Amino acid sequence: GAVVSQHPSWVICKSGTSVKIECRSLDFQATTMFWYRQFPKQSLMLMATSNEGSKATYEQGVEKDKFLINHASLTLSTLTVTSAHPEDSSFYICSAAGPKNTEAFFGQGTRLTVV
Amino acid sequence: EDQVTQSPEALRLQEGESSSLNCSYTVSGLRGLFWYRQDPGKGPEFLFTLYSAGEEKEKERLKATLTKKESFLHITAPKPEDSATYLCAYDERVGGSGGSNYKLTFGKGTLLTVNP
């Protein structure tokens, strides 16, 4: 299947700082990428849908000014958690719509810990 | 309200003991039912997509089936390496027919443990 690479796999940051997470589709072009958040023993919750060259669509309850998404190219989307707080600590996962647009491939996830 | 429910929450099997995981959904106009495997601390790994009632797909020891109200993931003669959380999700496509902006809504998953 198609490969989606997410970086970093884990990050620890101080409260009040910003953290950027990258999501790359390595062997296909992804016009649409998705960002999810997952708490322990919980389901993946969609945060936003990112379309190349346009503004991201955020799900209800997700602060767009806090979670900045940029999808500048067909192979790269970034999520920036701004002014991070301990409650933002979570597992963030990106996915990209595959070339056939019939499946979604996921990155490895990023464990964010805000101290 | 559209939703997807997985059962059981957790399942322990002995190696070789076949079983099934359930995913029931209440969605108007299902456009796809997905199964993923997720290992601890990792992103989900794609397994299957099912589109219509009666459809079946197989991969090694796994077989996924779909009815109008639920999907089953059958595991035949499981091995310890099959231990993982299995997630199902439905595709709620937005943006009109043929649109690329599909949206996956996930269940909470079934944690499968296969003991040697």
Topology diagram in text:
The complex is a heterodimer of chains A (115) and B (116).
Chain A: E1 4-7, E2 10-13, E3 19-25, E4 32-38, E5 44-51, E6 57-58, E7 67-73, E8 76-81, E9 90-97, E10 104-106, E11 110-114
Parallel strand pairs in A: 2-11
Antiparallel strand pairs in A: 1-3, 3-8, 4-5, 4-9, 5-6, 7-8, 9-10, 9-11
Chain B: E1 3-7, E2 10-14, E3 19-26, E4 33-38, E5 45-50, E6 56-59, E7 62-66, E8 70-75, E9 84-91, E10 104-106, E11 110-115
Parallel strand pairs in B: 2-11
Antiparallel strand pairs in B: 1-3, 3-8, 4-5, 4-9, 6-7, 7-8, 9-10, 9-11
Most extensive interface, residues per chain? Answer: A-B, 30 and 22 residues
| N-to-C span of chain A | 36 Å
Number of helices of chain B: 0
Radius of gyration of chain B: 14 Å
Write down how many β-strands of chain B occur, each being a DSSP E stretch of 2 or more residues: 11
Q: Helix amount of chain A, in percent? A: under 10%
Question: Distance between the terminal alpha carbons of chain B, to the nearest Å?
Answer: 41 Å
Query: Uncertain regions of chain A: pLDDT < 50 for 5+ in a row?
Result: none
Care to describe what's here?
Helices cover 0% and strands 53% of the residues of chain A. Chain A is mainly β. Chain A is globular, with a radius of gyration of 13 Å. Chain B has 116 residues and is mainly β. Chain B is 0% helix and 53% strand. In chain B, the strands form 2 sheets. In chain B, strands 2, 4, 5, 9, 10 and 11 form a 6-stranded mixed sheet that branches. Chain B starts with a strand and ends with a strand. At the A-B interface, β5, β9 and β10 of A face β5 and β10 of B.
List keywords for this structure.
heterodimer; A: 115 residues; mainly beta; four-stranded antiparallel β-sheet; globular; B: 116 residues; six-stranded mixed β-sheet
